[in-house]
Amino acid sequence: TQLLEQSPQFLSIQEGENLTVYCNSSSVFSSLQWYRQEPGEGPVLLVTVVTGGEVKKLKRLTFQFGDARKDSSLHITAAQPGDTGLYLCAAFSNSGNTPLVFGKGTRLSVIA
Amino acid sequence: ETGVTQTPRHLVMGMTNKKSLKCEQHLGHNAMYWYKQSAKKPLELMFVYNFKEQTENNSVPSRFSPECPNSSHLFLHLHTLQPEDSALYLCASSPSHANGETQYFGPGTRLLVL
């Protein structure tokens, strides 16, 4: 069973602070995705990373895929209340049409 | 709006009731999925349909019965559920059920079983 461990589980910060959340596994993945889920909604895809060591930026969000394709991080600069939500990482394995595996998520609260 | 709609958004049912959840996608996708999201647990894949054929049943109890009449619609029929089945049920779709395809999620149905 491929497990994705996300940390921290909960994070509450003040507006303007920086933060990093992590997604780790002992398995190698062909690609990894980050989603954000707001209350009352389904997850919405933020980014897909494919290449080991890849870094992608989406405005104030920076995503990195580990060199060995086993882990990833999401860094948010100058967090805003609108960043509040559940951040989920999800990954595809290297083998065939296996299901997308999700972590439990990091629940972020940004206080104004 | 992700192009995937789900109804109802909220549902309360007793353990002896029969109800159905509906999902519709307007994206022209060929694969559709049902997930269960419970507190403190990862999203759990329940069923996968690819070109209207069920390709995965992730050891889901028979009290959950999926139906996919066409590539745009997916149903989840519920019968004699248990309180522990209370959760957010999410539908998703993707162009096909291939490794790496992006899945688009609906807003979910929040189910409470009494």
Largest sheet of chain A: 6 strands, mixed
Q: What is the helix content of chain B?
A: under 10%
* Category by helix and strand content of chain B: mainly beta
Oligomeric state = heterodimer
DSSP helical segment count of chain B: 0
Low confidence ranges of chain B:
none
Q: Element order, helices and strands of chain B?
A: EEEEEEEEEEE
Proportion in β-strands of chain A: over 45%
Characterization of this structure:
- The complex is a heterodimer of chains A (112) and B (114).
- Chain A is built from no helices and eleven strands.
- With 112 residues, chain A is an all-beta fold.
- In chain A, strands 2, 4, 5, 9, 10 and 11 form a six-stranded mixed beta sheet that branches. In chain A, strands 1-3-8-7-6 form a five-stranded antiparallel beta sheet, with no helix packed on it.
- Chain A is globular.
- With 114 residues, chain B is mainly beta.
- In chain B, strands 2, 4, 5, 6, 9, 10 and 11 form a seven-stranded mixed beta sheet that branches.
- Classes of the chains: A mainly beta (112), B mainly beta (114).
- The interface between A and B is medium-sized, with 26 and 25 residues.
Pick out its properties.
heterodimer; A: 112 residues; mainly beta; six-stranded mixed β-sheet; 0% helix; B: 114 residues; seven-stranded mixed β-sheet; four-stranded antiparallel β-sheet; globular
